[in-house]
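Appendix B.2, paired examples.
Example (i):
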Amino acid sequence: MINKKIDKRISFSIIFMYVTLLANHSLKQFLNISTNSQRELVSLFFYIMIFFVYLINFKYVLNRISKIILFIIITFFVIMLFNYILYPDTFKYIGKDNIPFFLFGFLSFIFYTSLKNKDIFFILFIKSVYIQSFFSILYLSSINFNNNIIYSMSYSYYIFPLLLLLIWKMFKSFKIIDLFLFLLNLFFLIIIGSRGPLVAIMIFLIILFANKIIKFRNKSQFLINVSLVTFLFLLIININKIISNLLNILSNQGIKSRTISTVLDSSANFLSGRDKVFFYTLDYINKRPVFGYGVLGDRKVLSFIGQAYPHNIFLEILMQYGIIIGFLILIALLGLIFYRFLKRSNNKERYFFAFNLGFLPLLVTGSYLTFYNFWLFLAIFINYDVEIRKFK
């Protein structure tokens, strides 16, 4: 009983971070806080709240995995020390805005690792969809479109976990309210969000349907799932017609969507010019293939073309650590992913969720160093399986 209460407090710390980051973004929009100084002040307030919740529950984590935490901290400082000796000029590219998100990733990793009953975390995370949906709706209710294209990549990735959780929840125990919230938030994402999360959501749906078909127990269940997959397939191949009709409906209401306009524009590049960043990164990897450019070294190189990082986890790791160490890291990472996917387990849906949440987006955007979803994904994949009960 004591362990269960502690697991709830530890789980709450991670989930509170996700809810608070969405609340921070939504409330700034809702309260029309537009100046940079005011927005930074509000963000600082919410960040302090997150760190405070982590801090008051840190003693439980420390009691359970103090040796692991010490090992991680020592390893981190050794890597940073060697990095400073070999590449001293890269540290100025850390950026004060990135530090909180790096710490969020580190804390979510060690907090999840310390859990004895992982069920509790996922059950509470699933239940958080309603409070997350409240802040998401609050954000959209305050937007004045006025025939202008509204775009927010930040909002896309703040509601991204919410959409994945709603899908997972519906697969576990279907409710009309969950379907409504999913469609509503998906609509929000299509209107003002980016394409990356949208693709990951579609992949998550296909994976879950395919997994259901593989595990079918009777003919009726098999036929239902095959029908749903067929419907989803037909939806995908007719997506241009559907999106075109949706764009016309939105245009009549004075709403413009960057995502829809880009999808329908045959001359548009799906990667939004990131293919040039990829080739630029590959060119510099070839110039220093063995030793790389060090942690944050990619920031220095890519700053010449106005980019912060390669927008691809494979290229980022190879550029930072070189081909030898980089390939070893990537082989270990991909090996872990394939091991979890191929191993017989009742908890595969958990790994599908974590993969789509923290790894898949890093193929086209973000940096693994500051993408806290990645560190939660890593913690989920590394830690031992436990049985997940049915969500209610």
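Example (ii):
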Amino acid sequence: MLKTWKYSLGGVLLMVALVFVFGQFIQATPQPPTIVGSTSDTLTTPYGVEVTLVGIERHSTQLLFHLHAYNGSQSAVQLAVNKGDYQFYYIKNGRFTPTPALAGSDLATHPAFPAGLSKGASVDGWVMFDTAAAGTYPHQLIYRFGSVKDTACANLQDKSTCHPDLAFKALVWNF
């Protein structure tokens, strides 16, 4: 079943959609959800794209995330375009921070996660996180696969504190 969480990060409202065997709605929280997918879990977007965090390799200050995707939808899909939607992120100081592109030396043994995937196809690829450059160690990998217009409120009981905002649809792995 589909679980949906909404929470605000640096003035941006985030909607996290995940597929689980069981389902219930969780109230808005100021912190990211802690019970979501973990390493080796396959999470599925509402569009039928299954993404699995296969494993994590540690190389000095780099974390390399091995991902597998299967497109079960009826059309080609975008996967990782390194801007806005369809990108991998981590949270730093309450803000979305995109994962950097793989360096040329990494690409020889760790091919980058591709930009798109044909219907019915599957693919393996990698994304990187550099703890030295980021100044933090992430405990979540977030795959943002879309956004929708929404409303954010400073006080949910007072509608005068509400304003238009953008909600992101994302898969989240904890590790």
